User: What shape does this take?
Amino acid sequence: MRGEGGSGSGSKAEGTGEEIRGSDDDDNMTPAQSRRKAQNRAAQRAFRERKEKHVKDLESKLASLEAAQKEAASENERLRRDLQRMSTENEILRATSAANQNQSGSHSPEPITTGPMTYTPTDFYTNVLQGHNNRGPPHRIVTSDDGHRLFAAGAAWDYLLEHSLYKRGLVDVSKVAEYLRQVAKCDGQGPVFSERDINYAIEQSVASGSDDLL
Assistant: This one.
């Protein structure tokens, strides 16, 4: 027990001795050495402060960039919705304009020819609307609950005329009308046809025509 106590006393004495020596070193420094030591301490303290400030600046910039990214994503989503809304409004205006022209009799649609056949809009309407009493506005375009566009007969006719395969003279309109009559849906105002079904009917009429040529 006495030995341990003596050891502890010795360690304490050693620590006290180091402090005394450190104090003696400071006392033994020349004024120039004391100034250099003070300058070194000040430089180290300034370095630590600059480092902490730099880290805080980086954290602040990161937070600003993250906020800007979120704002840009929100703005992109808003623009996407606006574009979709304007596209829908444009479709409605185009369909309404075409309907008004048809009702005013400002022009009479000419028959179109696909191969040896002549087909008029009246023929198309009569075929696809066969058996439907409530036909509704012919040029309306609506969106289904699952996000697909639905075309009334007049709008489907306009869509057909703008299709690239029709413009190349490859579409058999009678076969398109026959297929659409079988897949007509009702949206509460009258029969409508999904954009997917219209495209499928167009493509199938072209494929069928190719088989006939073979």
In short: The chain has seven helices and six strands.
